[in-house]
Each structure stands twice: as structure tokens, then as C-alpha cells.
Hints:
The chain is 43% helix and 13% strand.
Amino acid sequence: MRDYWLNHAFLHGHQWLYWQESAGRLDEIPSDPERVQATVNRLWPNTRTIVSTLMQRELSFEVPPNAADDSHVRGARLAETIARAVAHDHDWEYLRENLYYAVWKGGTAAMCVDWDDTSVEILSDDTQGTSPLGEGDTYEEWLNITQFVVEPGTRNPETARWWIKSVALPPAEVKDMFPDEWDEDELPPSDATAGLAPFHRKLMSYDRGGDSELVDLTLVMTYYERPNNDNPEGKVCTVVDNKVVFEDVWPFPFTNKLNLVIVRETLRENRWTGDTILTAARPLQTLLNVSWSSIAEHMKLAGNARLLVPLSSIEMMQDLTDMPGDMVPYNDSLSVRPEYLSPPQMPGWWIQQPDKISDEIDDIMGVHEISRGSAPANIESGFGLTILAEKDNTPVNRLTKETAHAFGKLMSLVLEIYEDKTMGGAKRTSTVSIPGNAPIDVRWSGKDLRGQTTAIVPADAILPRSRAAQMEVAKDMLAAGLIENVTDFIAIADLPSARDVLAVTSPDVDRARRENSHFGVGRQCLPYPWDKHDVHIAEHNKYRKTVDFDMLSDDDKKMIEEHIKAHEVLAAEEVGSQRMKSELDPALGMAPNADEAPPIEPLAPMSAPPPAPPPGQPGVNGLPLEAQAALEGPGLGGEVTPDQAASDIMSLMQQMGSA
């Protein structure tokens, strides 16, 4: 908690302070008007760069089926759809960013899930469609290390017997949550803010919107205990002002774990809490402030140039000006004339010291030129930029992997709760938004999931990437001939607004990929005559080689096969139509058409075959002598070249056709 509050204060610019051990709180160092207390916050821009890098790519979820039969595969696909809808509707990207800041400042943070019975989400019966069978929805929270605690001595906090959540809320809101606990004119006590140190009140006021005075807040603590030998039913209870205002049994379907997921920035051996590299950078930030303060004081006290004037020329002072090129008379009988006294020069190491300290902070936090978007000198290749970008991302890659694992576990908890709360025939509608496509409504109930509730977030899907490095790699691959079309270049380069670029440069590829997304949720798509059928067939076949296709049911696979066959039939009809036009008139076959079918030139006329021999002439079955010679010649028995054999066969076929 001490490190969290110190890092929190330093990150927001309050850096001239100390931790008072006797009182267990933060206090500011008394300011002296005669001394300079400069604050050059190096931690904040580096933190913003790191969090922006971590948030570069959005969360994506996968639910691998635990069995190969169709029902389990369909349940897994449905669970993926629900996960995508939950992440969007509950704004998990906002949750994720707050989690990053919490774990960055405290080394340890948590996410928890609960069930809200007051949600307006209505579940309706399959047959009636109107009768409400239930309501409620999950809600997820992020917690910093000061807002929760688990059973002391535990090694795995997620499987401990109990944990406690502590939050501060306005008294009126607390009374609205538990209206029966207080009289009409009574409010819960403001025990969360009572007795706070002045600086702590100032810090919390800044966090709550920068008000001049911190509003009164009430402490609300919620205790979660999963079923165990001492308490087989488990317990959830809420305490306000030392009295229980809510109590119930364990409400979740899982009993082998808590409704809590832990994230750590740096692991510590033999303890469940972690550390953060921000703590290691904090002493250097203090030294940087002292260094800049010393330089600023020197500039203040000894940095001004002063004018030396001989005492005998004191009457000239009113004639002295600071105008450039101005003529200033002085007493030439004196050997000394007015001149400036230059300020003392600071030693080079003194001036360079802040830059060296800043570089040390950058090294600890893993933020350098390439992290800030500028390429180092003499490095222009995509390979070189990729290496440097990976080096800068190394300190946060572990956090990225742990965060991916944590969000996978959180989504698994959500899916388990959904399956349990919506079991019994009730149907819920989830709206899935697909980029570049109309939203899709999917109706489902808990029994449709078939126990497929284990979600994962692939770490590779959210690992940060340097866009500049990706662009250089794509250019190198294009120059080497490894990329041959614009769609592959867009994918490799990871261009911003890639879908919009693809829609302009290759609309058929974009449309085919939208159709692939529809296939993934069991929706059929109709091919149209104006499609580029070869492009659609190629994109659909790429989809048929993915894991997503393998997870589809046999009916869905058959639907995709029929869709591709329809493209094949339309392509054949297109060629036949163009061929017919070109035979009628070559110019007609070359004319543009509404379906954008490629122009086809008419076939070249074939040479007239030789006349058939009169009846009774020598031959085999009425064949001409030339055909008979071809049959008896070396073309069918001797050694001939492939070109000669092909020529003989073509000639023979023409003669047989003539006969």
C-alpha cells in the first residue's frame, strides 16, 4: 500500500513528499520560498507511452471445445459470440486500461465479477416471447491493491477461502443501495474520509475530479467466502458502519475458486503480491528533481550577467542603455571601462547529469526513442526497427501475457455464471457487432452452451507491435516478391483503418471476408452475378483452412460448400454469356457489362479438314489413308518426342472428326 500511494502521487506530479512511518501516511516536504523545488515528471510520459502501447490492440476471445461432437462445437462457437458481445457491451477496454494503471502503480491489481439482480436485461420464454422468466446481468470491476485483501498466508489468492472488497461511495448512494438500514433523514457516516491526513485528502480530491474539497465518502466492505468444510454453503455479506446490511449464501456456480482474478506486474517469490518497475524508477525521479532544482537555483542566484562600472564614472550610469549598437562615452583617463561580469560557468558533468538520470529512468521503464515513435539514427530497415521495438516491449511483454490470461479467466467466470443463471429454457439475445457489417442478434440460453465456458485470450493477439516496424517489414517483403497483392500488404503492414483501405482497394476481398464472418455464426450469404467469383472462391477457401472452419457443424460446412459451388456456377454462366456475345460480334464481347465480367475475344476459326475418301477406298473403318498411317506409324509404338506425339494426336482427332 505504501508503494502504491507513493507511486500514485509521483505519477500525478506530487513528488516532494515522504512516507511517515510512525503515522503510516504520506506527507509533503515543507516548502521553503527561498529554495527551488522543481518537478520534472519523467514517469508520467513514460507511463502514458507504455499504457498506450499495451492498449494498441483490442481483446479477442476464443473458446476451444472440450469435445469433438457437433453439440459441443456449436456451444463453443456460441460462447465465443457471447464473449464478444460481453466485452463490447460492458466496455472491457475501459476496464482493461484502468487495470493497467492500477497494476502499474501497485504491482498487484484484481478484477472481480458479480451478479446484478437489478439489471433490466429481460429473459423471455421460447414459445411465448413475452413472459419474463428472469432478469439480471454480470458486472465486472477493477480493484487496486488498496481496495481488496485475501485470506492471509495464501499462496494462490484466486483459490483462497475468502476475500474482502473495500470501496468508498457517497453516503446518499449507499443509502439508496440499502434503504432499510437508515431512517428517512439519516445518512451513513462518512467514515472513509474522516481522519484523513491533509495531503491524502488533497490526493483523493484530485483523483475524484480535482474539487477544492474532498466530498464525504462512506466505506462499504463486501466479504466473499466460497463453500468450504467450515461453511458448506459459503457466504456473501456487506458491512457498512460495522453492521451487516446484506447477507446471502455463495451465489456462484463455481465452488473451487473465488470470483476474483489477480494480475501482477512483476512476480515475487513466495508471496501472492507483486512489484512494479515504477517503484525502482521512483528514487531516480527524486534525484532528477534534485538535480534540476540545483541547476535552477544556480541560474537564479548566479546566472545573471552584471555590469561593472568604475566608481569614477558613476555619473555616466544614466547614459548607459541596452540598445544594440548604441555609443556609450566613458572616462578615457581611466584604465577600466564599464564591462559585463559574466556568470560562472557550470561544469559539464553538472549540466549532463539530468540527461543521464533521465536515460537511467528510460532504461528501467523500457521506453526509448522507438517507443515514442521516432526511429534511431542510421536504422531504417524493417528488421532493425523490429528488433529495437521488441527490446523496448520486453519489460511489458510479461504483463501483456498475464493480462491476457487474466481476462480469459474473467470471461470464463462470466460464461459459467451466464450458463447457470439462464438455464431452464430462458432465452437471451446478444447483439454481436462485426466491423464493416450489420449487427447480428443471437438468441441463446444456458443449456445451449453445453458446458463450453473456458475462454482464452491469445497473447499473440494483444502483444504490442510497432506500426513503423510493421510497415518496413511489409515493404521489405514486397521488394523481395513475398507479397504480390495489396490485400496481403495491408494485412502485413497492419495499416490503421485497414478495413477501410481494403474496402477501397479490394472491395471483393472485403465482402468475401464479411461473408466469412457470417459463416462463423451460421448465417448464409447469397453470391451475386457482379461478384468477382475467383476472388470470393479464394477467400472462402482460405477460411476453410482455418481452425474456425474446423469448429463449425457439418451443416454449416455444407452451407459454405454450396455457397462456393454457386460462385462456380455463376462464373461458368458469366463465361458462357461473354463467349456468346463475342461470337455474335467481337466488339460486343469486349464491351463493359453490369456484372463486370471480363471481356472475351472470339475464338479463332479452325482450318477446314481434308475431305473424306469416297466409299470403297482403302482405309480402316472408313478412315482416310492419312489417319490409317497415323495409327500404324511410330506415334503409337515407337519413341517420339512429346511435341510430335501431341501434334499427331491433334491431327488424328481432327481427321476422325471429319470422318
